[in-house]
Known about the structure:
Strand order of the largest sheet of chain A: 1-2
Shape of chain A: globular
Order of helices and strands of chain A: HEEHHEHHHHHHHHHEHHHHHHHHHHH
CATH class of the largest domain in chain A: Mainly Alpha
Distance between the termini of chain A: 23 Å
Number of helices of chain B: 9
Helix content of chain B: 10-25%
CATH class of the largest domain in chain B: Alpha Beta
Number of strands of chain A: 4
CATH architecture of the largest domain in chain A: Orthogonal Bundle
Strand content of chain B: 35-45%
Order of helices and strands of chain B: EEEHEEHEHHHEHEHEEHHEEEEEEEEEE
CATH topology of the largest domain in chain B: Rossmann fold
CATH topology of the largest domain in chain A: MetI-like fold
Number of domains of chain A: 2
Bound molecules: adenosine-5'-diphosphate, magnesium ion
Strand order of the largest sheet of chain B: 6-7-8-3-9-10
Number of strands of chain B: 20
Structural class of chain B: alpha+beta
Largest sheet of chain A: 2 strands, antiparallel
Structural class of chain A: mainly alpha
CATH architecture of the largest domain in chain B: 3-Layer(aba) Sandwich
Distance between the termini of chain B: 40 Å
Largest interface: A-B, 24 and 35 residues
Shape of chain B: elongated
Oligomer: heterodimer
CATH superfamily of the largest domain in chain B: P-loop containing nucleotide triphosphate hydrolases
Amino acid sequence: MSGGRGHQRMAWRGRLLVAAVFAILLWAVVYPNLTVIAESFRADGTITLRHYVQVFSTPSELRALWSSIWISAATVLLSALIGVPLALLFARFEFPGRRVLGALAAMPVLLPPLVGVIAILFLYGESGVATRLLQSFLGLQSPPWRLQGASAILAVHAYSMYVYFYLFALAGLARLDPAMFEAAASLGAGNARTLTRVVLPMLTPSLAGAALLTFMTSMASFSAPYVLGGGFRVMTTQIFNSKLQGEVAMAMVETVMLATVSLLVLWPLARWEGSREYVAPSKGTSAMRVPVRSLWARVAVPLAAGVGVLVLVLPHLTLLLVSFVRDGTWTTQTLPPAYTLENYRELFAETHTFRPIFNSLLMAAVATLAALALALAAGQLIVRWRVRGRRLLEGLLALPWALPGTVVAIALATTFSAHQPWAARWVLVGTPWILILAYTLRTLPLTGRAALAGYRQLDPSLEEAAASLGAGPWRTLRRVTIPRLLPAIAAGASLAFVTGLGEFVASIVLYTHRTRPISIEILSQLRDFDLGAAAAYGVLLMVLVAAAFILGQRWVQSGSA
Amino acid sequence: MRAFLELESLTRVFAGTPAVRELSLQVGEHEIVTLLGPSGCGKTTTLRMIAGFERPDSGRVVVDGRDVTGMPPQKRGFGMVFQHYALFPHLSVAENVAFGLETAGLGKAEIESRVGRALDLVRLPGTQGRSVSSLSGGQQQRIALARALAPAPKVLLLDEPLSKLDAALREQTRRELRSLVKEIGMTTVYVTHDQEEAFDLADRIAVLRQGLLDQVGPAEQLYRRPATQFVATFLGRAGAVAGTVEGVPEDGVVMCRLGADICWPALAPASAPLTKGAAVRLLARPEALAFAPSDQEAVLNGQVTERRFAGSFYVYRVSAGGGELEVQSDSSDAKPGDRVGVVPRAAPAGLFAFARSAGEGDGA
Ligand SMILES: Nc1ncnc2c1ncn2[C@@H]1O[C@H](COP(=O)(O)OP(=O)(O)O)[C@@H](O)[C@H]1O
Ligand SMILES: [Mg+2]
């Protein structure tokens, strides 16, 4: 049972909480974007469409918009083509090494966007390891390819985003009733027919979710086009460039455009996704996986899986390799000639090298706590109290997800560069607070989703049972609600923390030297050609991300025991 | 018996549709009352209003002379057993049972001994350290009961507590449940849609239909003198034929004309008096009817459509008088297709006349 139960008349403390949650979310999520919209129509103190006319009559602007859209569509297609078959392979077949390989297939999530890009650069870039190996193997004069432009962006996107399809399809397959396969088989359907008529249709909601996520992520993607784009511009890099060149009004219009396109795509897809949900009706005893039987398949399937997975972890390995390269020794050789631990020692040895690590950890932690608190409060309001305006509240939690990081950053930078306390504006630019605010906003959809899912799975009769045993609201919250929400909290918090830790897109707009996070430091080391140091920071991030995930997972399991 | 729990014309409307309408009911001290009715009739809603989880749109809940309508559930001191038990999965058996004792602020030693006693009571001693998920369905049900009983509540509320158990276990558990609740003398409201369960458990049964209370009384009274057609058919079996009222009802008995020279006496409901000539539907319990030679007086002739073996007897379905009757018989002589005569055994017992509303057909 759920929904629509009456609640006691709300105490004033409850009303205060409702008011506070609404006020904070409106102020942080909506207000800055309204400021951007207002600025995009403003010139010399009057309201004008001038900037829009200018943007829409500039071919390079329209090209950037079109590039963003087609790159995103192509990314969705490529990611699906890699992720779905991989998921089917691991979910349906039993073969030696399945567990390990299946876990490794999700490895790209360990690489924050910028780290993924530089890892691929170290591997397949003009002077990357793979490129040099192939070049010397074939005896070529110049590198066999150049990792630049649209195809390079697409390659990086497919590499880092197929995981969405892989994980969503796996989750969808796990929800399917394995008896379905047997039912299809008993009705005479072969493998292909079962796949097209039963499995894929039933996976549609999951795949739609993955497509949505991939498209949005790709639209918002900044690191890959920024590092690898060369002359090829997408909207995010276009905005960044306008801002850099002081064309503030143009940046505002571009920001509005990017946000609009993202929202336009999100709206119908999100509704469609929500309207179709298949749930396994029974947890039967049928086995999900079938052992691989024929001899050639017994060799071919694990081999293919192994090779595939190797390709997926090569960037990680390369990053690790480069992090041991002694500064200035790797010039023209195929593989680095000299190795050292010096790069790692330096990370922690000096204040200025440790500073970014400290910044990232602290800012991500504070942002995670803030986003978690907001999400839990909102979850209570939406699911439990069913307050009026709960739809709006849910929308506010999810909105930053639809807004590319660049948009969020520009909006915050525009809004919080003025001191107008009467308009709830303060100068936050230049302080760590603006980065924390940006991280909080960017992670809010993650904690929000987790909190809402947690609250919705929480059997309301547990809380009622506590009340019937005399427990007041606080006691119920402490003894029943929070412990039951722990898995959701852990999942949301670890995702949020990891996102904040590696954040780059918004940071590059908002950082100062004093508040620079790890990602920015990686970029500047790269600019100084200190590849080893950049890689060491990258590996550190990778390890921190993995640790956060593992800890989160532990917590998830301990809570659901 | 003194009324301990009183419901005074409770009404609850969900989005314009009333789930419970003007429901009034009194439960005596130490009494077990069952709310019986088909799914969706408002049983859970009624129970939740008693517990305080649902606020009535109008009406009052009074306990021991005190109005508790606006009181939050945690202040009421009622024990509740939920349909799916709602055991706290993150707490052990002992912690679950101790939950209500802790909120009452009891000392550690006191809690421990009372947890032990509660577990003894439900015959699961020594399970303190177990996790609730390691228990079987029947055991979980008993822990849920122990948890509700441990703080010695004023009233015990149960919402279909046995619906998750299989049939054999259900029957055994409900007998145990009754003797346990009777032993400690708990005032109890028990929700179920299962008529047999209500018969086994209740001192009195309250029959709900579409949010309305049709009748309250001991099982026997409901079976022997149902107040409505719904009660007659929901509790026990009954066939029905159409007739008209002949003469004025006397002492709650009315003559019903079923054919040219066929008149059967039947029990008439006290609430809605029948007038001469009124169209009625006559309901008959299978055991109240017998086969008879077709030339006997007041015989209703019909045709057997179905014969069912029910252990020590047979139940025949007979299509007669524009309706369908069921006849219980020890003999297996008649078979489908045979023409038979049917008479009441000991009229008016087991025969009930209810007014047929206008527009209703003659059929059953
Ligand atoms: N929270 C609610 N919101 C809307 N309708 C409800 C709610 N709870 C119950 N109802 C409706 O009220 C009616 C009675 O429900 P319920 O009391 O649960 O019935 P029962 O327990 O007898 O099966 C049903 O039609 C049900 O759909
Ligand atoms: Mg119910």
